[in-house]
Amino acid sequence: MTEMITFENVCKSFGKTVILNDFNFRVMRGEKVAIIGPSGSGKSTLLRIIMALQDIDHGKVSIDGKPLWEVNHGRHLVKPTRRHLRDMRSLVGMVFQNFNLFPNLTALGNVAAAPRHVLGLSKKESEARAAALLAQVGLSEKLSNYPSTLSGGQQQRVAIARAMALEPKVMLFDEATSALDPELVGEVLGVMRDLASARDLTVLVVTHQMGVARAIADRVCFMEGGCVVEEGGPEALLSQPKNERTRAFLRAVHLA
Amino acid sequence: MALIWQYRFDLLVGLWWTLKLSMMSASLALVLSMFFGIARYSRNPAIRISASVYIEFFRGTSALAQLFWLFYVLPYMGVDLTPTQCAVLGLGLCFGAYGAEVVRACIEAVPKGQLDAAAALNFSWFQTMRIVVLPEALIMMMPLFTNLLIELIKATSLVSLITIPDLTFQAKAVITKSYSSGSVLLTTLAIYLVISLITSTVMKRIETSLSRGRIAEGVK
Ligand SMILES: Nc1ncnc2c1ncn2[C@@H]1O[C@H](COP(=O)(O)OP(=O)(O)OP(=O)(O)O)[C@@H](O)[C@H]1O
Ligand SMILES: [Mg+2]
Prior knowledge:
The structure holds two protein chains of two kinds. Chain A has helices at 43-50, 82-89, 107-117, 123-136, 152-164, 182-196, 210-216, 234-239, 244-255, and strands spanning 3-14, 17-28, 32-36, 58-63, 66-67, 71-73, 76-78, 92-95, 170-174, 202-206, 219-224, 227-232. Chain A is α/β, with parallel strands linked by helices. Chain A folds into two domains: 3-91 and 169-255, 3-Layer(aba) Sandwich (Rossmann fold); 100-167, no CATH class. Chain B has nine helices and no strands. Chain B has one domain (2-219): MetI-like fold (Orthogonal Bundle), CATH 1.10.3720.10. By secondary structure, chain B is mainly alpha-helical. The A-B interface holds A 48, 51-53, 86, 89-90, 92-94, 96, 98, 100-106, 113-114, 117-118, 146-149, 159, 162-163, 166 and B 111, 113-114, 116-123, 127, 131-132, 135-136, 139, 213-217. Bound molecules: adenosine-5'-triphosphate and magnesium ion (MG).
């Protein structure tokens, strides 16, 4: 098994707020990892770093064995070029809490946009790919709907199809079901579970819904104070946490 | 009213000039608005700064002073422009600066999450603008552009001061010829009003057709 995502001694602060403090983290190819932790503990920041939407202060992040935030230039390490970041981003797809669909495009248009413009496929090919992906997430009937005419669950499924359209090796879900009404969580979780069944796809989900962590993950990490405090299999970590802070967090979640 | 009928051709000539100058300077202003409004978001700092300088300069100085400068001062510097060129350039530059601010504000109003989504999909800067940001910003711009366009049409009356026979110029001429101002001024006002009403109706149509099939976020 090879490492897909590696964080070595990564530090990241916003002003004086330390978000990641000498952070070390590894995810193997094909692994499904859930990250839980209190609000503000840096879970979104972690995903945004992997998606190359946010840079780091120190340390080293590698994806699929290639360094993300630095490139070799002779014997020196220099800042990554735009080109390098684009290459790295093509390995990763991301789904956001608020869907972030493009409201001026139909469901089909949203999913077809990247294959068409980024991969340079023809209009026909990119729409065929988009239609196939939308069928996979159960939205064959909604190809020509604009986002504003779709339910939250449907919008999020379009967003998942859109992220999959570039065939990433890593999929990131940032609270993908948190903005949904409870009765809509199931349909999105179902789609996420289907995706996670692909052996080669590496999946990282950030969630505060323990049901989501249980359904998707084979490893759960509890993050707090800029570090991973405790990790383990979902059953072990969620039912018998060893660390006192993990226990306190889980108690608070269950009370909520 | 007989008076208006008697001088109808004078007023029609004025109307023709007003419409023609409005069209020409609005086209120039639109191009400048888009260019400099988007340039404010360029990744190149030199482009960003030039855009700011242009916007601040033309927004901060009066349109009339700009027209006079083009008309009276440029010839001393060896640049001889026709009155029409002065008018189109002056109004275009001035309203282009206002318009650029509209474009900038509307681009800024596009939710940041969509920029993240576009970046995550590996869109380039141009693709993000063309596919994601501008289509949405455009719908937000429409009502603001309508305002500016009506302002511009009314501001064309300034060109009467640089010898162009627009509606205002002709109205003044008719008043001088006929020794009567009431009905001429009233008619002139009415004509400006009708132009504005037609403009806002047409712009509303365009706005509706742009947002067809979807409800734009934060607009409706
Ligand atoms: N661009 C930014 N500039 C300044 N501060 C930021 C920025 N992004 C995040 N932060 C701050 O960093 C901290 C961690 O944010 P992050 O979004 O990663 O937390 P989180 O674990 O995802 O929290 P939540 O569960 O609420 O989503 C927060 O205190 C946040 O206010
Ligand atoms: Mg978050």
